[in-house]
Fold each of these.
Amino acid sequence: MTVPFRFTRRAAAALVGAALIAPGAQAAELGATEDPIRLALVEWTGQHLTTRIIGSTLEEMGYDVEYVSVGYLVSGAAAADGDVHATLEVWDNNLGDLFPQLLEEGRLENLGDVGLDAGEGWMYPSHVAEMCPGLPSWEAVQDCAQEFATAETFPQGRFLSYPADWSNRSEVLIEGEDLNYKAVPSGSEGALVAELKAAAETDSPLLMMFWAPHWVLSEVDVEWVDMPQEIREEYSITKPGVFKAVWPGLKDKWPAAYEVIAAAKITNEIQEPLMARIDRDGEDTEAVVAEWMAANEDVWRPWIETATN
Amino acid sequence: MRAALASRDGRLWLGVGAFCLLCFLLAPRVVWIGEYPDALVIPFASWITTGMSAFVDSFRWLFRALAALVDVPLVGVRTALQATPWLVVMVLACALAWRARGPGLALLTACALGYMVVTGYWVQSMNTLALVVVSVPLSVAVGFGMGVAAAYSERVNRIVQPTLDFMQTIPAFAYLIPILFLFGFGPAVGLIASAIYAAPPMVRNTILGLRSVPAGVRESGVMSGCTPRQGFWQVEVPTALPQIMVGVNQTTMAALSMVIIAAIIGGFDDIGWEVLSTMRKAQFGQSLLAGLVIALLAIVLDRISFGLARNRFAGETPDERAARRQRTWATAVALALGALLLAMLFPVFDDYPRDLRVYPAGQLNEAVNWFLRHYSGAMDALKNTVLFFGMLPFRIGLNQAVSPFTWGFALEPWMTAAYGVAAAALFLWLLWRGRAGGALAVALVAVLLWWGTTGLPWPVVIAAATALGFQTGGLRTAGFVAASLIFVLVNGLWEPLMLSVYLCGIAVAISFAIGGALGVWAAHNDGVSAFLRPINDTLQTMPQFVLLIPALMLFKVGEFTALLAIISYAIVPPVRYVEHALRNLPQGTVEAARQMGCTPWQILTQVKLPLALPGIMLGLNQTIMYALSMLVIAALVGTQGLGQQVYLALSQADMGMGVVTGLSMALLAMTADRILQAASRRHQEKLAVGTAAPA
């Protein structure tokens, strides 16, 4: 990421000036630095990276940051009550009803996109292309249903869809387009991942709904089905949005932190290589983030500058 | 035969049979018989949501204060455990274990804690320990109090029993949202959920223990001049102690099994959180290593509490006791100081470095993959066989399960006729032989197998279950059964209910058959008993999520995987309870039977098992409860029953729906339990009559 030179210099000058001349003025801008800002760490690695990078940036500014491990859906309720102050990677394809409800009631504030280029669709482990050479075309999916048939779904093909409590869009699509598949709801993310790993290991057929970026995609080679745009739109299998949700009191208590969180953008290019190092190579998240922070000041420094300018 | 038909039960079942026949005939024509109409669903769920919201809004402050109160000991214990170097904690734990049972247990404790250190899970383990150390005494105290009250007052007992059933069977997921809103986010929520879930075994075992104190023992207390209070603490409680300790053991296990549920809320960085995160990534090795920590904690806590309760120094004089205590304390303090010194000199004893971690997760994953590559075909064949011949007939009935793809042939009309004739012939033959109960069982199973749990029209199920309730327990049981099923029906949860009945029914049958047999074996063989105990402890406390991962990889998302998961958990209570019941029989009766020349088999089937029936029935009750509580976990591998409904409610933050679904699961458990308990009581009465007659 490149930053206009003038902008950087002016911001830096402002920072230095504020620090030298009027520490009181800057403290007011930072807000209540004596109280810790609590950030939610939910179940997946990508979110840990997003949160820890933004959190480390806040620490650079002089904030005290605490990380709290909390369930993803619960993190919304916790942030609404101010028990945590931000949950920084909320996926709108898996929201439940609680997040929208809290956002609508104004008990939670949406601080804009995380910056991830997320995708969602039907996919298969690469070896499946040998069983159905027409893939990834949409027609091939329809023609190859037999290749995916199992004992439970025979004579239809087996399609592994999202857990029933996430969404039933694939079920609706299969029914609406009259595809010769039977959707099997997977029950949990772990189940989706376990099946994908097992299929790759045993070269068995698998067609499933999934999303990216996801760490398992650095472990298993997959390809995405070319789903026609009009079908994507009709069944809303579109790009998921990923946003940052914060406690509404954040703006008044820590104004500068509020601005930094709003400005921060975590892209796939940042997340994916770090995710692979943690989940595949077993490195420690904190160490990986610290190393990244040291090497990428040009990425995060501008967030601070936008905020304090 | 005519007598059987003319009896009260005979007329009842004739009526039920005629009613069911009518339903079957009408079902194809009248839609609402086959499927309960959506328009008649009563919106209890939304009423509950409204009511609860109002309640939460007005009483939130009270519960928040309670949460803050519980937080104090929790944070205290946690901070203390965190601040202390691991070597010191380990030395103190080993000293306690030595005091409780001797060097063997101390060694086991050292190994268990050492495992937590070298795998790098020390911090998380201590956080979990803090949670358990606070919640178990809470559950034990509340449970003991409730148990004592219920043991001495039939009126209290009548309220306590259903409350226990609710506490144990309403899945924690269902009330997680309400208590989250009430208590606020934080570890106190997990603590409270775990205390609710863990108390019932303590209550049940306290009641059973106190009620089984022989009248003679109680009288001897009175004769020797005990006040009621002395009689209670010095005669009855010690006599009931073995049973009460089973309760403490089970409460500890239950609290540890809730660790994982508490982690869903999070906020504590405990080992449950670790398991949950690795489960989400389907990392078997990692989640097994983390899950083992919970199992090891359970085993160590259980052995130490057992040892302390048994008090191996019971025989010593007061002087000896004082001397020994002094020695114990001196040694413990000296060791702890030594450990502290070591920790200060060598930081490795304070904070174990990450570089020295032994963490064979990769190897474990590779082992699973190896197995997968070599045996996935065989496992697939196994799954399909069980599915086609065992599970499908129960779910959709033989009339749909038999097809060329599954059984290798299509169902011809003559087969249908043959099935009907065979069932009718067996039914009539049994009736003619005067075995009305057997005949009834044949009729019910034949109908069930033909149509499957999901194929039966709802009026048929309700009528048959109510009649069964009436026959075993009279009007009261019948009323309860009918009311429960109708509650589920009008809430629009009939279909998920029958799916759950099907899955749990099969799981309970298999678990009880295998577990019961193992329990009998363990009761007669100390080696088997010692071998099974750590396995049981592990199965019961190792988060089920862990076992789901390899099961998923081998058997894919679906009901078979769910069945395996349920069985792996529900098989433990029959083993434990059957063994315990058989081992604690009055020795005189068994000895008398032996002297009369009974063979071991006769002693088992005609003396021991009938005498042990109350304990065995408690085991069956717990098997059903455990199976139902696993439904929620089973939903994680894609089952469609009530368990899935709970997640739907959770994801929608729908308090009312969560509660209604949870209640439905509890009512299902209680219906099964009431019918079984009534049947057992009837059987016992018959036995009592049988033994009384010759005298």
Note: Chain A touches chain B through 50 residues (CB under 8 Å).
Amino acid sequence: MEEKLVSLPEAIRAHVSDGDCVVLGACLEAAIPFAATYEIIRQGKRGLDVAAPISDTSSDLLIGAGCVGQVTGAWVGNVSSGLGHNYRRAVEHGEPHALKIRDHSNLSFGMALLAAAYGMPYAPVRTLLGSDILTSNPEFRLAENPFSNGGEKTVLVPPLAPDVTILCVQRADVFGNCHFWGSSGVAAEAALAATSVVLLADEVVPPEVIASDPSRVLVPGYRVSAVCHVPAACHPAPMTGRWQRDSAFFDDYHKRTRERGGFLAWLDEWVLGLEDHDAYRTKLGASLEDLRIKGEALSAPANYAAH
Amino acid sequence: MADYSTQELMIVAAAREIRDGEVIFVGMRLPIAAFGVARLTHAPNAVGLFECGIARYEPSAETLYTMADPANQLGAAWATGLLPMMTQLPAGRVDAGFIGGAEIDRFGNINTSYIGDFKAPKVKLPGSGGAADIAASAKRLLAIMNHEKRRLVERVGYITSPGFLDGGDGREKAGLVRGGPAAVITDRAILRPLGDSRELHLTSVHPGHSVEEIREHTGWALKTAPRVDETPPPSPAELDALHRVDHEGHWR
């Protein structure tokens, strides 16, 4: 198998193009690949369709930086602090420019990825009935369940196949085999549905480490396009067993981005004025070290012996 | 001066909605504390689900900022994906779910998406998250809101999460096979759907509040139930449980 270890800027240059549908933040509030969000902004990508159920402030950041043409998902804001100021400015005032919104619920979004991942023509669901999401997003179809007696109403969700899914994982080998643990949101479906998968590994380990526990593999290496070794790529989001959430950082972002000018200053300070994620980690300094999970609550080993 | 805060009363009122052995979609903030209080008092076998992909018996020992925080992963009953968790809703396996919202109307429809026309909204709210799914398919919907005239409105402009829609058999007509709002817990009162119309009625007034004041802060002509109770203040056992759940005193 070919080695896929590249730098994050190389991976973004190679796998994210203007206008692409990009999944960043498939695990909802945890393991959001903020380092990739920042690099996409530095490279000035435009017209992206950002797809995520809930991606905390990652989508708000990309919208404010002018990278987004469309939002496909269930929720955009700041999970612990409230509304997303850039999202509001874009939708309410067209600043920095107008956005298209493809409204979903969490379940319909997950089912859209599932349909693409499993090669299904659509996913029939019993959710969204009675919701105006069916009005504001005309892509859904209302149908009768052909297997019901009384014309049971069913919503048909079209497949969603992202151009690229970018995931943070605790550990990966250079071939793109990886382990992920903790709640995973729609990460598995988003990976299997995507044309390309880019992994941001907190740690790069020998292949035998991953091979020792294949049940913990989120997506196998043969479906992965690139692996980047980026410690704390999820900051300020948390990652099970690795990093606590930097809630003060989210709160600071919320306060400083109320006005467009404040956001631009924040962006200069934390993204555009820093060369890469190494510089970002250096700027965080001791506060990042405080967030590192140092305790141990190890799972019991699982025996895979054949004889 | 009461020995509990308004938020503590809301948490205890929410906890009382959880029955023993039930499977509950929890959500953040007040409902997490309510789930913890219920487990420590009358519902020791309740199970809590979180949309990121977590099921728990015991609530986390630490204050959470998000449901996917490491403290919510540690000691979970199940850490999986969003779909295995959220598909339990349409499968009919979820007894009740909590949601908040910017706006709720007299039939319990909730808006967390757009204020004003969705094509040119006055305010863009964050959106559904999992709320629309919980409202569609949990057996009972439990809403927690601040009781203000601009939040409790005659008719929401956009239904993110369906309540009883136009009232009556609105849910059945829309194809929803179960569920609907069971209680709306506010900082002043508890409202419940009554009668064939399923319109929200005032059923319980929190201590220190009056029917007139509550009507004044409601955006429709709020009807009262045949019998309006006073919300019982937290019992010593409930307060003790709450203090154990909220050891940092966040809700005091």
Note: The helical segments of chain B are 6-15, 30-40, 70-73, 82-86, 131-137, 170-174, 211-216, 236-245.
